[in-house]
Amino acid sequence: MSSVVSLDGRDRPNFLKRLTANCIRASCSQIGLVVLVVMYVLLGAALFEYLESGPEVQKRSAIQRSREECLKELWAITERLNVLYERNWTRLVHEQLRKFESSIVAAARQSDAQPAELALDTKWTFSGSLIYCITLITTIGYGNVSPRTSAGRAATVAYAAAGVPLTLACLAGLGASLARLARLAWLRATKNKVPNTWRKDGELENHFQLHEQQRLLPQPAEHNQYTSFPPRMHKSPGIVKTRAGDRGQYSQVFEKAPMSPRAATLGRVKRNALSDEPQTSSALQTQTLDRKRAANNVKCLATVHGPSRGRGRGTIQRPRGAAIEQLIAEECGEIFVNRSQEDLDDSEDPDEGICPHDTPSRVPLIWSEDNHKMKSCAVPSSSASTSVQHQNHSLEHCHIPVGIVLFLLLGYIAVGAAIFSVWENWSFLDAAYFCFIALATIGFGDFVPTSFLTLKNSAENSKSEYIQMIACCAYLVFGLILIAMAFSLLQDEVVARCTQLANSLGLTRQ
Amino acid sequence: MERQHNLHSSIHGSFRSKDSSSTVESDPREKIKDCLRKFIAFMFTQVGVGALVVCYAILGAASFMHIEKDSPDEQLENVVQWRRNCVEQLWNITNKYNVLNYTAWMSNSNKVLRDFQNNVTSAIHLGYNGRSSEDIWSFPAALMYSLSVFTMIGYGNVVPKTVWGKIVTIAYACFGIPIYVLYFCNMGKVLAKTFKWLYITAHECSRREDPLLEDGEIQPIKKKITVPSTACLWVISFYILTGTIMFGAWEKWNYLDSTYFCVISLCKIGFGDFVPGANIADSAEGSHLKLVINFIYVLLGMGLVAMCYNLMCEDVRVKVRELREDLKNCLDDITLKITVCMNDTKYYHQRQTRNIK
Q1: What is the pTM of this model?
Q2: Which residues from chain A sit within 8 angstroms of residue B41, using beta carbons?
């Protein structure tokens, strides 16, 4: 009854199906957001084009006016000096010219005008205001184009106030989805190496001591043992429908698995430390563990066996005793708390839920979640806890090394720099500087792709200019998504290391 | 985080019922060590990060000033050259029309001036600023520049021209942005806790004034109170209003422009068309003070935005979760009903067929 059977073959199609289901579900909420943002941008572009088409002409005449003034002054000077001494005259003219120059500078900064006479058409074509809206809501904000009219400015204020959080949420969500895919790809890529390297993996040392015991456990081969004991239907605590063979087999709980009390307490304390909620230590009874929380159709698969493979906080030991109940309670509580603490996340997983069983020994406990929310354990990654393992892998704790992520970002910037230096005739350094400043959403505006400066009439814009403009926009937007992904990948790692550092420095007591 | 938590409780008065984690140590040395540890941890978390940010900005300002001060402004030389040319041409024109023919002189001079203007404008596009590098990169301006780099606002009215300036900007941003994000999160947490405490206290006070709420007993507030988003929005609006009045008065902008500037800065967009104290015409001393005030305003504003983000996240999350649960319950009920219905009909059909048999 406690034979360990390999899962791999039968499990893969299920896994794939589940994965695609996850992806689709996640992307639906994402796609909705993306569509919303796109519509918002288009709407804003139309609005700003309408608001700003007028007064460009007025600004240009400001320069013209100052030029005429200068001329009048020069004439007056020439008339006054009845005898033309060159030096005197030159000096006075110099002064006048300097004044004229500063007025040009002031006017040019205000209106960012090209040589005024050349810009026969207003800058605020539809594509111009589209670029403007994009740079506005991604908070890059070049500033080469900015609203002149009061109505335009008021509209900018309102538009930004609503658009910036929306875009940030959208970008963060997309980044998180991308991060999940990246982790998956990484796991696939390193799949064969996992059992060997897992033990040697130095990173595991950094994770929470709760993992130590896992390393001490006997490690049979590849797969992990999940047994599908009865999926618990919500609201019906008593009913247990066996679905034997859903995922396969039963395996034995390692009763004697070493669970050092230190690890348990440490784990518990850490979880305490990281949640702000008051601990419901009274929720020891697993029966009282929230049915509410085990939302719909939680397919409760437990992972509780020693030889789990999974990195990081995958499997949870289930030693018996009061400590376990507490652990369970806290795991549930913790996950609940975690979820309340994290950011508004992208994937709405209806299957998210935990329903622990308290079963007698020798019967495997079933824990799992189908879709493990990435971030639910990402925030207090130090809480090591509880995660319930996702299928075969603990996706959320698969660590893509920091170096690779940074290298990816650098590569992206380098590629962009190469492209821009060719298109815009900038030096490579300037192009790299431009890419970096734009992707960090700083956006000075000293270097702006010429396709963004829509001087000419839209009729005159050649196809290639449009393509360039769209390519630049796509590059920037995708770069921002990549950065969001990098953040989400590196976030827990950085937090873990910092906490570890703080611990080792004795700043936080355990 | 528990440490932080307890520090808050000790600092914000004990609004948490949890006891501080200083265990009962009768040994005074232990107490001292404990205090010291608390202090260091506190420095590293709240105050420390704020001080770190300010120090980093000052460091950046000093280095950028040093790097960019001597940057040769090619455009300046060009412009000077053009100016000289222009004057020469004007002189020639004036000489030519020895008998001063107004219209001819005017039209020719106009042409010359127009050329000059175009040249200057193109020079402006290549970065000419009307001032020499030394004037531009004063210390407050460099401070604002560093701030705009690591807060990712990026005004752009002052930009590095030298190669080293650009490289150092990139490196500075790479290190500064994480520091800033840390500051942002920390400040947000602290301010959020303070604000929540204030709100809860106000709530309790207002409740206590209504003694007949629960049969004459004052019920302790059991459920977790989340600060509503509107309160956060009020705080932000108030801050923007303050900025509007302040900048409107000092910079002589109209109120719309000041509001525009405040929102654009706080949203980290930073166009750079309005920057306080960055006008050429401003006197040196006045602009220094203004830049410093701007610096402080932006930093504080970021903290407030972080706080609102924190609080609103919670609120939104709670609401979304409630919504989700409601939806799920609804769906469950519906599916339950449907299955019951189907089972009934199936059972009914079975009965029928059995009866027939």
Answers
A1: 0.62
A2: 502, 507-508
